[in-house]
Amino acid sequence: MAGREGFSVCVKAASKALNILSLCALVAMMLLTVADVLLRYCANRPIVGGTEITEYMMVFLTLGIPLSLLAGRSIKMELLVQKLPKKAQDITDTATLCLGLFFALLLTFQLLKDVGNVRSLGIVSNTLRIPAYPFYLVMTSSFAVLDLVMVLEFFKRIRGKG
Amino acid sequence: MTPELAGLLGLCLLLLLLIFLRMHIGLAMASVGLLGLIYLEGMRKALGILSTTAYNTAAYYPVSVIPLFVFMGTIIAHSGLGDALYESAYKWFGHLKGGLAIATIAACTVFAALCGSSTAETVTIGRIALPEMRKYNYHDAFACGCVACAGSLAILIPPSIGFLIYGILTEQSIGLLFIAGILPGILLSLLFVLVVIITAFLNPNAAPQGSRSSMREKVSSLKVSGPVLALLVLILGGIYFGFFTPTEAGAVGAFGAIVITYVSGYMERKKFLASLLEAGSITAMILLLMIGAFIFMRFVTVSKLAFSIPEFIGRLGLSPYLVLSLIVVFYILFGMFFEIMSGMTLTLPLIYPIIVHLGFDPIWFGVVLVLLMEMGLATPPIGLNVFLLSTVTDVPMKTIFRGVWPFVGAIFVAIVIVVAFPKLALFLPARMLR
Fold it and tell me: How much is the ipTM here?
């Protein structure tokens, strides 16, 4: 029991920590873009590689996905399942959760493989030559924690607290 | 129909089943897309496509426009600027017959130009406008119907989440889509006002007059709404005249919103953090949806469904306008069950190739589609805006649904006008391209 509680606390803490990083990236992205526009029109000196920095920052925004799912903020269709008996709802919810977890695990595994591949191939951005592999790692972390969130959800469901 | 095509369509049916079983729509699209890719390309290749598509979607520059405009919208919604906008509209229009409803529509129109989310708009304006309308004995059904439908203007008047998602999924210019939404947005606002005037004329008790304000009060009410109007002119003007890309407009808009709300005393640290948290959460939700949609679209492309379905429809020899009418009816029904983000991501991979195949303008179709989805926000059985208003105001959904019909009729008239006169949507984009 204590192990499960500890697991739950760790997953929540990890999701919140990643979310803070994603929010910082959002603010930084806004400031960078505004600075780029101002420098372009006021000093005729746009930020070199601004677009690719923005693209990399976008990867950081995926770090908010685990907390968003943990908080139950998701886009889904409730109408039909609500008409089913509670037990049937639990079964279908668990089944779809397992399918989602299967997808997320495969994606995490493949992204982790890509980190190595992108690093060994030396893939960098076009203008600033920033290596791409750390950003693959960022996205891998996001989906790894998402896997844990789904495992936590799975435990909740089989204990009937979902 | 070949057995392969039938099998692939079976996978699409599986997607619908998963969605009806309450699976997260992004995860459902991604899972079915992955299963389809494994079926067509084998495990190894499918996994390669999976991770590449997921990463490339997240790091796709045009997607960056979404979090920035979402951030701008949450700042405006959390700051309480909506109160100032409504106050200003009330001072100018409140004394007219049905004036409070007209003020609500005016406030929603301006708010829509700052916030792309219809739910945020409905809750923000509804929270301020409904108590005021009740004070003047407006009928609950009419007042709530007005807010629920006027709130949906947010997804038509730029910056609109609907256009952002449509533009990204179909690789159409978001700038052109934004500009294309301006005239139909104004037309729809005017049609809503017309509904109010007719209602006030036929049944004066349903929508009485509010109090009259002096010219001094009217002018002083513009103190806050003036800079807000200036911000929206800067954003849309910047896109129209090519000073900004949509992403830059989003960043300037969010930054400008922070400055305006801070200077006018509407922004506090707590509100800023709340708006940032909400923007992050919405962005995460949309990103997962986008990743799922792009994986599913890869499957649709690899399977050649995107070509087979339009070809199949072409072989039926139906008139393009008959097919368009069927699509419109489909979206009216579909919109009753799905809100705009999921509705678009689910259907566009299959519907968009048909539209292009039939020779319709993709920008024009984007406007028609957003109008159709807008209708779904207020129609039974789900009507997301109605549901939200009912939660916020405790007015039963049944009562609100009774009040939305005249306004839903106005949306339908707007759709007919935009379909009959495509220039209404395409006039400004055409001038922008010159």
Answer: 0.93
